Every structure is written in C-alpha cells, then in structure tokens.
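Following up on my earlier thread - several people asked me to post the actual chain instead of describing it. Fair enough. Here it is, all 418 residues.
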Amino acid sequence: MRFEFFIAARYLRAKRRQAVVGVITAISVAGVAVGVASLIIALAITNGMRRDLQDRLLSSTAHVELMRVQDDGIRDWRALLARLMRLPHVTAAAPGLYEPVLISRGARSGGALIKGILPAQEKTVSDLIQPTIGSVAPLNPDPGDDGQTTPSANSAIPPILIGYDLAETLDAKVGSAVMVISPQGELTPYGLEPKYQRFQVVGIFHSGFYQYDHEMAFIRLADAQRLFGEPDIISVVSFKVDDLYRAGKVGHEIEQAAGPGFLTTNWMESNREIFRALALEQIVTFIVIGLIVCVAALNILIALTMMVMEKTRDIAVLMSFGVRPEQIRRIFLFQGLLISVVGTILGLILGYGASWAGHHYRFQLDPQVYSLDYLPFAPRAMDGVIVALVSLSVSLLATLYPSSSAARVLPAEALRYE
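Reply from S.P.:
Thanks for posting it. Predicted structure:
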C-alpha cells in the first residue's frame, strides 16, 4: 500500500474527537450514493419508456405508409401492391381502408378508427390483430376472396376485432354484437343519413398502448368497403422494410415508384415529437439529478477542509519528517477519492437493484396519461460507466482546494505554540 493511501485511509477512521468530521464524511458518502442511484434509476426509466414505446409502436404500426395526396382513395391497388412489393428493402405490404366511426352497444358508445384489412397480409406488417381473447380466424375472407365485396357477405353478421379498452368502454365480450355507425351516409330527402351495420365481436386485442387499445378496431376489407360505400378502394398501403432506421429513404423510393399523386409517411416522422420529448427529458433529468452529486461534492469539500484544519499539527509533523508537499496533497486527494469511490459503488448497487426490482414487480401507470400501463425500467451498463465517471470527476474537483491548502501548511508556524 502506498504511503499516501495508507495515511488517507487512517484519517477517514474518525476518532472520538473527530466525530463531527466523521459524520460529515458519512453524509458525503451517502450523498454520492443517493445521487448515483437516482441517476441510474432515472436513466433506466427514460430508456425503458423509449424502448417500450418504440417496440410497441413498431409492432403495432407499419414502417412506411403510402397514401394518395388527395383523399379520394387508391384504385387499382392490386397491381400497385404487386409492383411495389418487388422494390428493394420492402419485405411485406398490406392494403387497408381507414375511417372514423361510432361503435355502440346498448347505451354505451365510443368513437373508434376502424380499419378494413386482409388478415393474412396485415399480419406481416402489424401485430395488433393477434388477439389475446378470441380468434382472428373469422376475419379471414373466403378462399379466393381478395377483398372484393361479394353478395354472400351479407348473409351473416360480419366479424370485428376491437381493442381491450374499447371493449371495456362498450362492456363487450367475445360474441357480443355491436353497432358500427359510419358518417359516410347516403343522401335522402331528409338529409344525410348515416350508414350502420351490426358486427359480432370475435376477438379482443391488448397491445398495452392506450391509443390503439382504446381507438382501434379491425374488420374485413370487403365489409369496410361496403360500409363506407367505397367499392374496391383502399386508403393506405402499409409496408415493412428490412431496416427500420432507413424507413425514410425506402419510403421516398416507394413514393417515386408509385408515381405522382402519392405521399409516404414513416414511423419516425409520425412519432418524431414523442422521441424528441423523451430525449430532451433524459438530458434534463441527467442535469437536474446530477445536481445531487454536486451537493455531495460540496459535502466532500467541507469534510476535507475540516479534516485539514483538524490535522494541521499532524501535517506539520509529517513535513518535519521529510514528507513533501505533493505527498500531502495526494493524501487528501486519496481521501476525497475514497469517499467518492465508496459512495459511487454503493449508489450503483442501489440504483441497479432498484431498477431490477422495478422491472420485476412492474409499477402500474394510468395508460390514459402515459400511454403505457406500467413503468418500464431498462438499465444499461454504459449508463453506469458514464454516471460513475461523472461522479468521480466531480468529487475529484471538490478535493483540489482542501488538498492544496494542506500542501501549503508551514511546519514552523503550525508547531510554534505546541
């Protein structure tokens, strides 16, 4: 053990007459530990929210969506779909027809965004139609049906797949009948009359993402075209690509291949504000909670300053025995470093332990406010390295003044009245 490190470790063992210094030292260690733990937990939460939001968005939505610039729908979509599927980087595509509707069951009702789909193709671009209750099989068209409306489709109540929160609003279960009312009505002598159709709930999905669970519903494409009075028209073509971070570039290529009058959006553009807010929140959280580490560093400065004042005679004796000023400086630098290292290690253990507990036990959230139904934790090893370096650096800066003061002690002056 180095001489300076040995003396620094001995000085940190508070004797009875150094009780105040010992208490301040313990407070300094606790301050560093709390600051480091708070940073680890805060970063784990922001990383978890970003990860879960991105994963759920990507599993619930397509990477790229193609629409008409003018809202008149996409005609001849089969040939267009077959041609765009051959583009590089496109792995899957599915047609869809979106319309806002009102869904009611008895006295209960709720607004929803209904989408007409071909389930076999929709499964390749979205995981939403994987119901947790019921089955998606009734949504499958008859063999050979490619989405066109057929006369036989009117012979039975058509199926519908709804979100979990929408089902709670309607008090609907698998097998329940609901009424879907479309604002795309028919003009009569008495004015515009909304169109309505009874559907039977065949499945309920639960994505954990409130906007989808509360607002989305799926029906067969042929049923949607008939309900909205749009014969053989779709409103959007959804795509999956092989590299989700190149969705913007691939979307531009799809737009060019589709020809004039088409426009594409991608998942990054649609959710840009959400991820920008999360990134800003992570930076602000790091700065604000990092102030706790700065306060702990001030405690280290106070503790070492009091230690220098208490040990002035000891420092003078050491210098009279030939200990150099730079060695005295290193003694108090090691003291501050020891306080910081112990506090940082305790903080890392506490922070990662709390993050593991939060991930394991899952604290519930209000999905209407946070879009997620539980608080996600995603601690990363790199965050621990960064936090530890910041903590050690700030604490080391706090030791510069007291260690320099100790090195400037004059032995003759300190021992004059001893």
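The two ends are 31 Å apart (CA to CA). That should answer part of your original question.
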